[in-house]
Amino acid sequence: MPTPAEIKIKKLRLSFIHVECLAAPLRTWPSPEIPMPFLLSGPLFQAQMNHALNEVEPYSIPWIKGEGRRFWIRYIQKNSPTTKDYWQALVPLGYQSEVSPIPVWTDGTVSMRAFLYPWGIASVVDCVMNCAAELKDAVRLAHTIRRTAMFRVDAGTGTRDISLESLNDLGMDRVRGAAYGPATEKGQSGDPFSVVTVLDADGGDETQVVEEGGPVHRFLEGLVGWDSKWETLVLDPLKDSTVKIKKSPPGHLLYAGGRGRVVWFPGHFLSKDGASPHTLWCYHQNLMMGSLQVESLGQIAKDAASALDEDQTLDEFPVAYGDCVQFTAGILGRVNGGKNTYRSNSLRRQVQDSFKDEVNAIRKKSRPPMLELSP
């Protein structure tokens, strides 16, 4: 079994998902005037999705170049979905972001994608980090990218170097202004949800279980909790931080925290003999897309749970808002139950950890009322 010093991380993919809820226009009657009025209407949203399917810019389907397409096919559960199917599944529109960051940090690449939902906007900042680092050093590099590393962008008045947080703020500001108007204030948002995949490493052994409390365990915790004190934290038992995955080698782990996931599948590392160059990339893409969708649906569930008084019903709100809340109640129930949608214990845990109470609240208000989520 390789010692910790013999394990060298060579390539990491880090995706940071940000969601901003801007549901007030959707639940306001009459609908306010906004630059993208299709966000406030089911029929208009479907028409815009049809344009996106026909590659009419700046809008796009969310599976650009096929990335993440498997998730969306299994999520929708239709072989030839119509635009109505996309609407009822609350599939977002991709939006061509004007922000094209260039990494100033270590060797790697970065991209930024934006998504439009009827109740808000979302972005994914996707970084690939190339290195040759021991476990601790790889976590430190990843923390540097998230906290202090610089990204070069065109800020409209020339290029400047900004942090990941500022990069996300800049991108979201531009998308929010384009969708809802430049005077629109920032909506409700929480901490980003991260998905990290070790794409390649030397020394990983898929036949050996990860040592409880050992270096790999601490490495995974450092990349899921993003705690600055990750090197000295008392670690929770592995069983409490591990998401059950399909039958796989004993050394494979999908590690979970409240706001993130880390994929450690040594048997699929790029430099392994016979490893497919696509396996981990596609797994990451599907997990990222699923996490994005649950995070986004969870935000309208939170908004509705707060907006609905004890005596109110969904019928008292505009049709599009009521439909989105109704669809969300059903979708997140299916995700939680693992039925008739993309099956993933990671997504189920995400619902349970972050949105269970809000989903149960809107399921009680649905038409007809739905049962509470199973624990």
Annotation keywords:
single chain, 375 residues, alpha+beta, 2 domains, nine-stranded mixed β-sheet, 20% strand
Write up what this structure looks like.
The protein has 375 residues and is an alpha+beta fold. The protein has 2 domains: 4-290, no CATH class; 292-364, no CATH class. It has 10 helices and 12 strands. The strands form 2 sheets. Strands 1, 2, 3, 5, 6, 9, 10, 11 and 12 form a 9-stranded mixed β-sheet that branches. Strands 4-7-8 form a 3-stranded antiparallel β-sheet. A hairpin with a 2-residue loop joins strand 5 and strand 6. Helix 4 (135-147) packs parallel to helix 6 (215-224), helix 7 packs across helix 8 and helix 7 (279-307) packs across helix 10.
Strand content: 15-25%
- Going by helix content, strand content and strand pairing, the class is alpha+beta
List low-confidence stretches. none
Q: Which sheet architecture does the biggest sheet show?
A: 9 strands, mixed
Instruction: Tell me the span between the first and last alpha carbons.
Output: 38 Å
Based on CA inertia axes, which overall geometry fits? globular
Calculate Rg over CA atoms. Answer: 21 Å
Share in helix: 25-40%
Output the number of helix runs: 10
- Number of separate strands: 12
- How many separate structural domains? 2
Mean pLDDT: 93
In N-to-C order, the SSE pattern is EHEHHEEEEHEEHEEHEEHHHH
